[in-house]
Each structure stands twice: as C-alpha cells, then as structure tokens.
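Quick one:
INPUT:
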C-alpha cells in the first residue's frame, strides 16, 4: 500500500496528512513535527510505502482553510477510519456532533450503550486519527473542557471558532 504524506500551513499551525490514493487516513494537528508524524504513520501502517503528495492533500488543505475561515461547517473529504471496534463506535458518534454543539464524554458513553465508559470514550477520542473531520474537540467534560490531543488552548480556539465559549 502506498500512503501519501503532505503538510500545509494554516492560521493555527502546520497540519500533516496521510492518505491513500482516494481516502484520507490521518490528519495531524499542529502539535507534532513532520518527522514525528511520519514515524506515527509508519507505526500505524507497517509495511506501507510512504511517498510525498497525493491528490487528497490539496482537498484537505482547502477544506481545513474554509473551516478555519468560518466558511465550512461540514467536511466532504473521503476518509477511511481505521480503529478497533469500541473506538470506531465512539468516533462514529463523535462524527455526528453538529458544528457549534458539544456533548460530554458521559453523554457519548450513554449514546453508544456503555453508560459507565466515559473514561474509555476519552481514551478513544485521544486516539482519533482524523481530528476536525471527526470533531473530538466538541466532546467536553461535564465540568469543563476535558482533554484534547492538540492541547486545551487549541480546543478552546476551535470551540470559539464554532461560536462556543467554555472556560
């Protein structure tokens, strides 16, 4: 399998992408270097040949810029979610949270029929390979922001971009 790696600058930092010829597999928030991202892709997809570019990268760049400019509330990029069954169930529910709304970790756990699994929901969110497209920044703790792989400042910024104000 050939995976195409790319990076692009945005107003909030440099994003990285990994895609097949027709689907996005990973989108990395601006907290990691490209070398760290490349290593994470190689670990997640052992045996894949890594190459620069790919047609999906331009699509991702365009839609992420539109989102950050408040001109896009839904993404149309074709994706392939590679995740264990529980994580997949969590992330599919998270993907359904509309722009400008939030749900708590506990609400997600109840929605998937696992009412005691709020911490496990948080763990699944922490391993989300497609942040923004699967908007894990919209999942919050019952008493505040909760965590976020891109850092709490980034989570706050994304929620504020969507018109939400949480401390």
């Amino acid at each position: 399998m050939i995976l195409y790696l790319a990076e692009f600058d945005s107003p909030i930092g440099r994003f990285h992408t990994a895609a097949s010829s027709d689907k996005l597999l990973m989108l990395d928030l601006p907290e990691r270097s490209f070398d760290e991202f490349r290593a994470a892709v190689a670990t997640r997809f052992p045996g894949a040949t890594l190459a620069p570019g790919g047609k999906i990268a331009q699509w991702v760049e365009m839609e992420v810029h539109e989102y950050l400019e408040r001109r896009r509330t839904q993404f149309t990029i074709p994706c392939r979610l590679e995740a264990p069954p529980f994580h997949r169930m969590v992330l599919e529910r998270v993907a359904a949270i509309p722009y400008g709304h939030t749900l708590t970790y506990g609400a997600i756990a109840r929605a998937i029929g696992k009412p005691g699994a709020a911490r496990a929901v948080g763990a699944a969110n922490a391993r989300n390979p497609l942040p923004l497209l699967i908007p894990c920044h919209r999942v919050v703790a019952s008493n505040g922001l909760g965590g976020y792989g891109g850092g709490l400042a980034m989570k706050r910024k994304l929620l504020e971009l969507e018109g939400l104000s949480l401390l």
